Amino acid sequence: MFSPLRSLLRILKSAFVVLAMLVLAPGNALDLSRAQSTLKNLGGNPQAFLEWNTIMQSYADATIETKLQKVNDFFNRKILYTDDQEAWGQSDYWATPMESLAKGKGDCEDYVIAKYFTLRNMNIPDKQLRLIYVKARIGGPASNVQQAHMVLAYYASGETEPLILDNLISEIRPASRRNDLFPVFSFNGQGVFAGAAANAALGPGGTSRLSRWQDLLERARREGFD
To answer: What is the pLDDT of residues 182-219, one digit of tens each?
Structure first.
């Protein structure tokens, strides 16, 4: 085969692979082209977007434990912890997944939000994921110092204890092994729950009870998440 023809076939093959990655999102919860356009408009690094999409594609059919660990590791590595004032010029700002990926910085809420939407797009049902507002003990077991914090929880069923994804540690642990965290309430796309137990009651009013979360959901939809 002539060398120019081989080169052309390689180019066409590479273009097909890239197109497939952009069009065939795992599941139907994300308009990937719109998300990519959003990140580009925000000045984000295209390589970060490619790595993020590769995680979703490569582990679309993996075990739940593998999905959780890969997503947790990715965002813990890609986002540098920074307070909202420095990152966004506001005292409390909840960034969308593409905002966090483009900025490469964020605080605990931003890690959790990015992980939540990514795992939802990897076909983990909303009912099995919750964002949990906690008080985190800082300074070891004997410390009385606490600070507001947020983590993501995965519930295998309505009876088991959740697994906790956190930016403070890389290991995903059952809630019973995170005695440094004291849950206050939890929420997801369904609304706000009274506590963080698997069988915690879902309160009335849906997401409207937490206006900051409702606003975030609307902005994420404009990025292509659903």
So the answer is: 999 999 999 999 999 999 999 999 999 999 999 999 99
How far apart (Å, rounded) are the C-alpha atoms in residues 39 and 101? 8
Question: The domain at 3-125 falls in which architecture?
Answer: Roll (3.10)
Instruction: List phi, psi (to 5°) of 159.
Output: -125, -20
Cα-based distances in Å from 14 to 11, 18, 53, 55, 67: 5, 6, 16, 18, 26
Residue 19, both tokens: 């197109």
30: nearest Cα among 12, 11, 49: 49
Fold of 126-211: C8orf32 fold (3.10.620)
Residue 167: phi, psi to the nearest 5? -85, -10
3-state secondary structure 165-205: ECCCCCCCEEHHHCCCEEEEEEEECCEEECCCCCCCCECCC
